Amino acid sequence: MTEQPLLNEIRALIKSSGPMPVWRYMELCLMHPRYGYYVSRDPLGREGDFTTAPEVSQMFGELLGLWTASVWKQMGSPQFLRLIELGPGRGTMMADALRALRVLPPLYQALHVHMVEVNPVLRERQSATLAGVRNIAWHDSIDDVPEGPSIILANEYFDVLPIHQMVKRENGWHERVIEIDPNGKLQFGAAADPTPRFDVLLPPLVRAAPVGAVFEWRPDGEIMKLATRVRDQDGAALIIDYGHLRSDAGDTFQAIARHTFTDPLKAPGQADVTAHVDFQALARAAEDVGARVHGPVTQGDFLKRVGIETRAAALMQKATPDVATDISVALKRLTDTGRSGMGSMFKVLGISEPRLTGIAGLSDLERAGGAS
Questions:
Q1: Which terminus of the chain is more solvent-facing, meaning fewer CB atoms within 10 Å of its CB: N or C?
Q2: PANTHER family this protein is in (predicted)?
Q3: Is residue 362 within 8 Å of residue 294, measured between CB atoms?
Q4: Cis bond leading into 296, ω under 30°?
Q5: 41 pLDDT exceeds 80?
Q6: Measured distance between the N- and C-terminal CA atoms of the chain, rounded to whole angstroms
């Protein structure tokens, strides 16, 4: 049996301090300084555990580059712009975006690139991918990025931020916890006492959930940081992730290893542990601090609006038949609404300073009221 040092450590913590909230378990799985999933490996690609949109096709990053150019023009084409990416993977998306931006020399000259990345393995990959880029810096947190007009890109970033899970009982909502069963395995449980007045701030849809329902929430700190930054310093943020348009009950806590779903309690630190993003909660928090919200819309709709079909046709025209087929498959994967597609599962939300009344691919008229 393979050694599982993080599992042993979590067991010891539960034995000494009692059941562990789901958020703390998720935080340890992903960010433990020695055994955390995101501090020790490159999880991407065929040899890794999952594939992100930038790894599917160059078109994704190129279109985000053109989206950046469009927003920069709406900002009045400032002579200095910070292009910030949160959780930038292997640097693939940024490399593709910058290639598209080279056709606009005034913007390309204005750019200062900032990569927010804690994983040393991925930092090395990003550094190699972006070797020719001038004015680039790495940071552990967006707090460390200097002030100034900014465009922030966050693709599959919010889904790994730790969640609280609450379970509805007859007497109220109880924090969901991880405990140890009689055989020494980890299992889900619930705090003995309900969280006082938890339901007061809940959306009506969640408040009406039946007994036994699970509700997930993330603290607003990270989204409020982005919203405050673009509100005060000019600019916009684009958040792309899988999740739901409306706040609702449901258990989405999951683990993926080798491109397959696995038990999130089985091998802590050795699988990617995530949960769906509540886009209504993100939008509400951004508006609460005075930023303007655009969308959310589905990834398929967003990419079509910013021209992915035209870009695919242009690439296919110059390609060999085999490569043209690959481009067609990638287009389908990024925009399709079926099970194998990312088009409807992934959503796109824009946040900007209040004067930007409409941004490419998103508009205030498209605030979602429908289900995911």
A1: N
A2: PROTEIN ARGININE METHYLTRANSFERASE NDUFAF7, MITOCHONDRIAL
A3: yes
A4: yes
A5: no
A6: 41
